[in-house]
Amino acid sequence: MDRDAVVQAMRAALGAAVGEPRALPVDDLFVSVELTALRAAVELLQNEFDIWHLSTVTGLDDGEQLLLHYHFWQGSGLTLSVSLPYERAEAPTLSDLIEVAGFYEREVAEMLGVTFVGNADLRPLLLPDDWDEGPPLRRHVDGQGGQ
Prior knowledge:
The protein is about 25% helix and about 25% strand. By secondary structure, it is of the alpha/beta class. A hairpin with a 3-residue loop joins β1 and β2. The N and C termini lie far apart (about 40 Å).
């Protein structure tokens, strides 16, 4: 994958919605993308660069916001990173573009309380049926959650 070409194409198509990329020592490039441009960025990866392999979606609570990392792979890594404010923890589903995204979205929804708009299957995946303590990987959810 020519990651420089991918970033240039994303910037040409999405403008200021694409942040400054940063290389990681594990052959991965992180690119921040505004939430409103996420689907367009993924469609660009698919249609212009034939990048379809979504390895996983990871989410984390950094204490100020929620972060979603969409990890793509094609000979090397390219991760699209979006941020969500606590008060509006919603992201568009990618499950209609990449079927396996639905599975990863279920995990992030359960662990961090993110709603993936358009994903019709956000049933619990990992937690016991009687779990009522809020998303366990959130630093705070009305006094609940982990840490």
